[in-house]
Design a protein that fits this description.
With 816 residues, the protein is an alpha/beta fold. The protein is 40% helix and 18% strand. The chain is elongated. The relative contact order is 0.11. About 1% of the residues have low confidence. Bound molecules: zinc ion (2 copies). The site of one zinc ion has 7 residues, from loops.
Amino acid sequence: MSLANRYNASEAEKRWQQRWIETGIYYFDRDDMKRPIYTINTPPPYPSGDFHMGNVLNWTYFDIVARYKRMKGYNVLFPQGWDCHGLPTEVQVEKKYGIKKSDISPDKFRSLCEEQVNQFIKLMKDAIISLGCSVDWSTEYRTMDPDYWGRTQLSFILLYDKGLIYRGKHPVLWCPRCETAIADAEVEHETRRGKIYFIKFKLKDGEHLTIATTRPELLPSCVAVAINPKDERYLGYAGREISAPIFDRKVKIFEDEGVDLEFGTGVMMICTYGDKADVQFAAKYGLPIIMSLDERGRMTDAAGKHRGLPMAEFRRAIIRDVREAGLLEKEQDLDHEVGLCWRCNSPIEILDKNQWFMAVRGLTEQVVKSTEEVQWIPNHMKWRLLNWATSLDWDWVISRQRIFATPIPVWYCSKCGEPILARADWLPIDPKVEKPKIDSCPKCGGNSFLAERDVLDTWMDSSITCAVHAGWPVKKDWKRLFPASLHPSGTDIIRTWAYYLMVRHLALFNEKPYKACLINGMVLGQDGTKMSKSRKNYVTAPEVLQKYGSDAARQWAAGGGSTGSDIPFRWTDVEYGQKFLTKLWNASRFSILQLTDFQETENQPALEVLDRWVLSKLELATRNASEALEKFQFNNALEEIRQFTWHVFCDQYLEAAKHRLYNPDVYGKGSRAASQYTIFKTINRVIQLLAPICPHITEEIYRFICTGKRRETSVHKLSWPDYDEKQVDNSAVKKGDLAIAVISEIRRLKAEKNIPLNTPIKETTVSSRNSETMETLEEMASDIKGTCKIEVLKFNSQEILEKEVVGFSEITVSIG
Ligand SMILES: [Zn+2]
Ligand SMILES: [Zn+2]
């Protein structure tokens, strides 16, 4: 058997992907009590349908780890689920059908969402398979399935019983576009160019104070004005009454040290609610709450004649009113920070609403302690989680006013309002569809109940994955798989996913959810800026995979940069990856042809210097690649393997071994056998080392190269080679390096003189003043002569001839 002339990546990759699934070689064996377990907390992605280069980067990282750990003898759990619920799908469905969620029945809306999600799951699953990921597909789950969201509900009940979930009326961040509460973590901050308005507020005696605000639309909900007691401009104003213009509401002037003297005029308008400072101020002084904005971003009755206007329109109207009343002193351009909904990019508001909360702030100390215990790769990324956790000033609002999400398993007694929580054995349950399984309210005896209409934040689903992947609560032995060995996370979701996982598992089980956190950066475009569809730097994953195949794309992902850093997408990196595969393929083809009469035996033949030279270098590459993979330095591992394979093995060793392989009558059968042994050992080792990064081509080559009785069914079932110090022959390394340097120089000189490489040379003189070098060169003369086709090789230890060779100043080579 021999390899085809050209490697057909798209054919071979597809064939192996199918075979791996059919044979189930990546199956996690729960009953195996011998091998240690290694679990990867694979992110369940939002099925957006778009598997982009960022996903290629992430999944390549996960898969390299999974494959490497399997070879290291671990029983690896590499699960895959889909995080179906949530706003993105609802927003997409609304856009696709041109509707709002309230336009059709909840059931109909939910089924449109499910249909959408299923289509997208298929696309993304195909993409993960075509990247060659060694996922155990028997673990596949969808968070929209009752089996999954029942677990989310169970976690809700357990936390409620522990007093860590509560319901209350509090100010919450609100997206008027999505019409739902959102959490701090879901707000993106952006600096936008806006305007600041200087508006006169009148006092009783005809005097006025000027306040500067970027939010004139909040005038109807102005409940106070504040000044800093240190501000000498406003001495004597505290405690007086002042009138908010247009609506003519009399409010009090407060003194508070929190007022920023530098901002605007130093006089601050307190509203319900412009920002978190307003919320704090209102709570501190017990101010009234006047909501002027409703859930859909329209003005309430508080806006008087402008009631019902969308906020943006009202803003223009109120400025017109203020100007006409002669109260607008001036307006200026101003860059200021706005909070945006991370799903739909609309500015967020703050509304006072009845919501469910998880009491996360009380857990901060535990979160900090556990975060410090986790191994972070790279280490400095832990600060992103620590800084986030310690900066939280609000609890996590976990209820959402949406449809496509996990139902909150709660009813309310219609008589006394008592909340009735579902019991664990009722789950999964949708309170909007089923009644509580009790006869009467435990508090008042009433027998009619109202279902909770709100649903859970989608992060409530995905923040229990470490336990769910382990089998909680179904499998009794789930703690064997918990905490997860590795939690992979993008830099962009540390404050959400990594944090929520941490706080929820600690709250539920009093244990951290993961032992190590592997961070991947973002993928940048060719131009070094963030890759986005609106710029011209966007590249889709199918485009890359179809053109160059997975093994080439995975080399870009593994080698593009250090772990955790942002990585630019470069076509040249993928092309380089493909060239390397071609090189490996050609070398393997050549080797297999040379090995047709080779039999692997226990006895190692008598090796020559260059054999020991390449095997020593192979051993060192094995050591370096192993060390890099242990530290998750994929780029270093890949570089080590590629450098050895391409340059040391293909370009140097194979070229220097050809004369021995081709001419056993001249150089001896033993010499040929020694080289065959060396090639066999090297090729096998190289594909072992490369298997986690390039799983397809290594599998294809393994099929042909590995003859004999020790054959496994797949390269991916082999053990990772252990570094063996005894295999490194330092003297052979030194001698081989010298011989290879001379050979390279002779080849370079031939090229310089336009002599074809395989043209025989009559005479070459190598000169060196160093007697040790001379001795080595004489020992290596046969290899130099054979490789460079030299009839007469002379050594000259006295004088320097023609050329001084860079890097080896004591050696001079002349071609005669
Ligand atoms: Zn939104
Ligand atoms: Zn009751």
